[in-house]
Design a protein that fits this description.
CATH class of the largest domain: Alpha Beta
Mean pLDDT: 93
Largest sheet: 11 strands, mixed
Number of helices: 13
Structural class: alpha/beta
Bound molecules: L-homoserine
Shape: elongated
CATH architecture of the largest domain: 3-Layer(aba) Sandwich
CATH topology of the largest domain: Rossmann fold
Length: 445
C-alpha cells in the first residue's frame, strides 16, 4: 500500500483569551509542537490572538502572532482555520463561537458555563454549517473524560457516574481537613494559583460543578443538556466539626457531582457527600479531580488528574485541536457526535426531583441535655421509616450549652428525611437547624 501524501500546511489557530489557560496553550504548543504535529498530521500554529488588556502580564510569549483587543477580528480573520475560545462566560463568548461556526470554522472551547447553558443551540449551528464544537477542556481540566465516555465506553450502558469535578472546592476541603485552615485564606490561594473561576462563588456554591455535571450526564446518557434541572448545594456551610465526625465514622466529606440512571429518569445532583474513606474517590485531594463511571459491561472505571490550572487545561484543549485537525476532512455524519449519540438519537430523559432520591444520611443534631431527648428523636426517625446505622453522642464542652448527637442512617427517600428533620427541629429540646449531608457508599467501586 502506498502512503497517503501528507498535507503539511499548518492549521492556523485564532485564540480568544490569553489568560491562564490561553497562555498554557501557547506554551505547550511551543514546547511540544513537533510531537503534536506528528500526531495531528499537520503543524498547529496560533496566528492571531485576542486579550482584554494587551499590557497585562502574561505567562507566554506572543511571538509570531497578531494580537488584538477585538476577539471578533480574530474569528473573522479569513486566515484563521480553527477558533479556540478561552474567554469563558456566556457573553461575548457565545456570540463569538456562533459566528465562527457560521463561517464553518471548528471551535475548541473550555467554556463549561456556555456549553451547559447553550450547548444544544451551538451544536445545532455547528451541524448546520458543517463545523464542530469540541469541549473536552470544559470538564475536569486535563482529564480526558469526555473522550473516555464518548468513545472509550461506547459499548456500555452507563448506569451512574460520580465525580470530584471542581478543583478549587476540593483544594479548600482538603486544606480545611488537613490543616484546619480558614476557608477564605485557602480560597485566596486557589485564586492566586489560577484554579478558581473569575467569580469564585461558582466554585464554592457548586455552580461550576453543576455545569460540568450537566455536560457529563448529557454525554453519558445521550440526553439534552439540562443545567436548570441540576440540584446544587455548595460547600460554604461545611464545618470542621462535621469533617471530624465524618472521619470518626470512617468517611470523608467530598463535594460530588452525581448522575444516576433510574427507571423513571435521571438523578442530577451536586452536594457535599460523605463517602467511605477506603474508596479511591475519598483519597482524591487538593486540586485533583476524579470521575468514577460505572458501565454495565466494564464495571467501575475511574479517571483522575488535575482538574484546573494552565497546562493541564491546555492539555485538553490541544487534544481537541488534534482531533479537530484529524477530522477536518471527514464527512460530518461520521464524526464523533457532540453528545456521544447521533443527533436524532438524543433522548429527552426526565430529571427526577431531589425529594425523590434515595440516599443514606449523616445528621448532626444539637440537643439540650435532658432525659428522653434521644428517644423522641429515635421515634420521629422510626415513624418515618428511617433506620439508624451508627450513632455517637459527644460530651458537652464547658463553653457549649448543647450536646451534639451525630448519626448515619440507612437509605431513605429524601422526602421522608425532610419530614423527619422538620419534626426533629420542632422539638423543644433541639436547638438550631439539623446539619445534614447525603452519604454515598459507592459499593463495588
Ligand atoms: N474553577 C474550576 C475548578 C476550574 O476549580 O475546578 C476548572 O474548570
Amino acid at each position: 500500500m502506498t502512503a497517503q501524501p501528507q498535507n503539511n500546511t499548518p492549521v492556523r489557530i485564532g485564540l480568544l483569551g490569553l489568560g491562564t489557560v490561553g497562555g498554557g496553550v501557547v506554551n505547550v504548543l511551543n514546547r511540544n509542537g513537533a510531537e503534536i504535529a506528528r500526531r495531528a498530521g499537520r503543524p498547529i500554529e496560533v496566528i492571531h490572538a485576542s486579550a482584554r488588556n494587551l499590557d497585562a502580564p502574561r505567562i507566554c510569549p506572543l511571538e509570531g502572532m497578531m494580537v488584538t483587543t477585538n476577539p471578533m477580528e480574530v474569528v473573522e480573520n479569513p486566515d484563521v482555520d480553527v477558533v479556540v475560545e478561552l474567554i469563558g462566560g456566556i457573553k461575548p463568548a457565545g456570540d463569538l463561537i456562533k459566528r465562527a461556526l457560521e463561517l464553518g470554522k471548528p471551535v475548541v472551547t473550555a467554556n463549561k458555563a456556555l456549553i451547559a447553558h447553550d450547548g444544544m443551540a451551538l451544536f445545532e449551528t455547528a451541524q448546520k454549517y458543517n463545523a464542530t464544537v469540541a469541549f473536552e477542556a470544559a470538564v475536569a481540566g486535563g482529564i480526558p473524560i469526555i473522550k473516555a465516555i464518548r468513545e472509550g465506553l461506547a459499548g456500555n450502558r452507563i448506569e451512574w457516574l460520580a465525580g470530584i469535578i471542581n478543583g478549587t472546592g476540593n483544594y479548600i476541603l482538603t486544606a480545611m481537613r488537613d490543616d484546619g485552615r480558614a476557608f477564605a485564606e485557602v480560597l485566596a490561594e486557589a485564586q492566586y494559583l489560577g484554579y478558581a473561576e473569575a467569580d469564585p462563588t461558582f466554585d464554592v456554591e457548586g455552580v461550576d460543578a453543576a455545569h460540568k455535571l450537566t455536560i457529563l450526564a448529557a454525554t453519558a446518557f445521550g440526553m439534552p443538556l439540562k443545567f436548570d434541572d441540576v440540584y446544587t448545594e455548595g460547600i460554604g456551610d461545611i464545618e470542621i466539626a462535621d469533617v471530624n465526625y465524618a472521619r470518626e465514622f470512617g468517611y470523608q466529606i467530598k463535594h460530588l457531582g452525581i448522575a444516576r440512571r433510574r427507571d423513571d429518569g435521571i438523578e442530577l445532583r451536586v452536594h457535599p457527600t460523605l463517602i467511605p474513606e477506603k474508596r479511591l474517590l475519598a483519597n482524591v485531594d487538593g486540586v485533583q479531580n476524579a470521575i468514577l463511571v460505572w458501565g454495565d459491561a466494564v464495571g467501575p472505571t475511574m479517571y483522575y488528574g488535575a482538574g484546573a490550572g494552565a497546562e493541564p487545561t491546555a492539555s485538553a484543549v490541544i487534544a481537541d485541536l488534534v482531533d479537530v485537525v484529524r477530522t477536518m476532512t471527514a464527512d460530518p455524519m461520521h464524526r464523533v457526535p457532540h453528545l456521544a449519540v447521533v443527533p436524532d438519537e438524543v433522548a429527552d430523559l426526565p430529571v427526577v426531583p431531589i425529594e425523590s432520591i434515595d440516599t443514606a444520611y449523616y445528621l448532626r443534631i444539637a440537643v439540650l441535655d435532658r432525659p428522653g431527648v434521644l428517644a423522641r428523636i429515635a421515634k420521629i426517625l422510626a415513624d418515618n421509616d428511617i433506620s439508624i446505622e451508627a450513632m455517637m453522642q459527644k460530651e458537652m464542652t464547658e463553653d457549649e450549652r448543647t450536646l451534639p448527637i451525630v448519626m448515619l442512617t440507612h437509605k431513605v427517600r429524601e422526602r421522608a428525611m425532610n419530614r423527619a428533620i422538620a419534626n426533629i427541629e420542632a422539638l423543644d429540646t433541639v436547638r438550631g437547624s439539623v446539619v445534614r449531608m447525603r452519604v454515598e457508599t459507592l459499593k463495588g467501586a
